[in-house]
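On clarity, I found the account of how folds are encoded harder to follow than it need be. For illustration, here is how one protein appears when written out as sequence plus structure tokens.
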Amino acid sequence: MPEAVLDILKYFFLFIIFLFLARAVKAMILEISPPKSPRPGVARGAGPAPAAPVPKSAGRPPEKMAVTAPDAKARTFDLVDELIIGRADKCHVVIGDSYASQVHARVFRKRDIVFIEDMGSTNGTYLNRKKVTAPAMVSRGDVARIGKTQMEFKK
């Protein structure tokens, strides 16, 4: 083989190695950085989500979220602004469920309406047994589920 071809292959191989290392470093940086809060109504990596219609029969929005896991004590959180839910220590609501992603979902308030949004998790977020694919409106008495962890929206 000519020496020029071997040089080209050598540099191509080095480029592939550096590309791999750059992607690995980027993934680590994204994992340790604080969660970014996308604008309400916009899912990560997607265009604007359609606005959720507010039914006339919708009751008053919940003010608290009770989190119940099979192997942990129940906890209650106030729904003031935004709660990030996941396994990472940087989340507002840390759950030890092995089915949960590091940054799994978020619950946020827009005007006087509470929404839940899946943050691109692997196993999905469910609200009243329906998979959440876009920000979904939450009412009192609704139950969200991430793996074996349940979140009930109250008062």
About this structure: Residues 38-48 have pLDDT under 50 and may be disordered. The helical segments are 3-32. The two ends are 76 Å apart (CA to CA). DSSP finds one helix and eleven strands in the chain.
